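Supplementary Text 2. Reproducibility record for the structural model of the 404-residue chain.

All settings were left at their defaults, and a single model was retained for analysis rather than an ensemble. We include the record here because the model underlies the residue-level annotations in Supplementary Table 4.
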Amino acid sequence: MMRAYKFLMRPTVGQAAALTGMLADHCSLYNGALQERRDAYRHISKTSIKYGMQSAQLKEIRAFDPERQGRWSFSSQQATLRRLDKAFAAFFRRIKSGDTPGYPRFRGVNWFDTVEFPKDGDGCRWDSTPHDPVTRVRLQGVGHVKVHQHRPVAGNVKTISVKREGRRWFVILTVEQPRPEPLPTTGSRVGIDMGIANFLADSGGEFVPNPRHGRSNADRLAAAQQDLSRFPRVGRDMRTGNHRRAVERVAKLHGKVRRRRLDHAHKTALGLVREHDFIAHEDLKIRNMVRSAAPRPDPGTPGSFLPNGAAAKTGLNRSIADAGWGVFLTILHAKAESAGREVIAVDPRNTSRRCPECGHTAMENRPTQEKFHCQQCGHQAHADTVGAINVLRAGLVRRNAQSA
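Retained model, structure tokens:
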């Protein structure tokens, strides 16, 4: 199985400048390849250029510009061209499926933050010895950069990526390792219901509170963004010292919220995987849930619109994004696979409106956000707990159907 490790890099001042130059040159290569595809399609009788044609030009590009393109790894530049090719493949796939196409866009230097090396030993080298307290990664054109390796890497390193987050640099390793031994069975099965008031409720009546990391840092983030808005929108090289510090302050706060949300997701998922053999959750379509409210034209007054609850919907969308359901479910599936646990997603419709005692389903069974009161048999419970119970039952039914 494949596993990713992420470590903080500690480059010198010169190495940090070289890393910044590497990102800028790969960004220039990406944008140049995108421009070539656009021009070929528009001006040369709708000709489509593929990855193989652009990769064959790399030798000429490196020879023509040895100072910017010739000093970096050839394989990493091929990975950048593959990145563009994947963007076009996704674009055409969305067209065929009828989704919003989203044509690949040019990347600014601030929005191009990752360079991938497809193979350890080709333009890069992960240098980690068991008895050496200092770990380094060698990057072509940069040198041997110190790495804060906070945990051992088990397995065979396949790919190495360098990523910039604010003023920090990280190295990400993709490692192939044998499948670990599954955790001992517990005989426990659980269903979970994701929410806003509580992060999740399980079928046993337990609740995990929602930390609301974004809301707790909203005031400081708003003040930092207000300070940043006073500066004109200019390129990275044209920013003043105060402008750079304002950008870094906003990025630092966003990074803090992201790390806290990720830490909470890891700890919550780990607790579920350790305690339960079978976990059922709702198959949430989060992208659809956070769409903006559709406008409501006023038929009596052309050009005007009726109230559509956009303000309330915006607040709900912000709360859903702050909860980080998608990140949590991705982590839950990954940890369950490593531990030999079973995770199943079920249809979320009517899970909090169906009585777990008699099966009566009605909107009136849930008079408030928290309260469940069956109109047929009188059963009362917390609405999220009822939803989790129904999710567990649906998950068991689906598992039995798959095994049959």
